[in-house]
Amino acid sequence: MHHLFELVLGKKDLSRAGDLFSLDDAEIEGSLSEALEQIKIISSSSDYQTNDNDQAVVEICITRITTAIRETSSIEKHGKALVALWESCLEHNLKPSGKDEDTPHAKIASDIMSCILQNYNRPPIMALAVPVAVKFLQRGNKELCRNMSSYLSLAAITKADLLADHTDAIVKSVLQGISPDWTPPSPGEAVQGQFHLDTGFGGICPFKNILVPCEEQLH
Q1: Which of 2, 32, 67, 94 is the most interior residue, by most CB within 10 Å?
Q2: Helical packing angle, 123-136 and 75-88, nearest 10°
Q3: 128 in a structural domain
Q4: Is residue 34, in this structure, part of any structural domain at all?
């Protein structure tokens, strides 16, 4: 790992974190996966959610890493480490506080999401990302869910079969937009009424007499 990443992440040195932006992308590209693994360790620590210094270090490093990945077109090289960090956020609280402020792990998930899912036209990356992405849809963060849905809709246009195994989870997430207290009806049961919800799949869609698909209809 590049010595500056070792210093910033190893010692959690916020005072040197900004220096990462003075380095050429090519100079640090070979260190990005290892740096992501170190960030995963830091963000999984028991005191991370209350440690402002560690959160700031992680946020700066993620910004630098995702920028370098985009500029060097190395997403396929570092995609596995990026998705692993992204998935680790699911182990923590993602629901915003009463002030609608994202939790530390929701911030990480949001920052990484755009870097990964902007590559919706790259099947190898989507094969890694889609199984993780659908897990975020029912984690109680509406903004994260809305953005995730938008990217998934693009992925579906490009390569629909990537979402085939996850249709059930996606349908349930869309229907749950009706009400926070909504629970899935039995397969084949109609939900009566007129509803409008922001699905993220093309804007506001009206639903009337929603029919929950049977298992065999989802594949």
Answers
A1: 32
A2: 10
A3: yes
A4: yes
Structurally, how many domains does the chain consist of? Answer: 1
Residue type, 101: E
Residues paired with 204 in a beta bridge: 198
In a domain, 117, yes or no: yes
Stronger pLDDT, 142 or 28, i.e. the higher one: 28
Domain that holds residue 137: 3-177
Is 78 a domain residue?
A: yes
| pLDDT surpasses 60 at 63 | yes
Alpha-carbon distances, residue 174 vs 76, 190, 193, 197, 198 (angstroms) = 30, 15, 16, 8, 8
User: Of how many residues is the chain composed?
Assistant: 219
Instruction: Convert the pLDDT of each residue in 116-172 to its tens digit.
Output: 988 988 989 988 998 898 888 877 777 888 887 778 777 777 777 777 777 776 666
154-162 long-range contacts, CB within 8 A, separation 24+: 154/117, 154/120, 155/117, 155/120, 155/126, 155/130, 158/120, 158/121, 158/123, 158/126, 159/123, 159/126, 162/123, 162/126, 162/127, 162/130
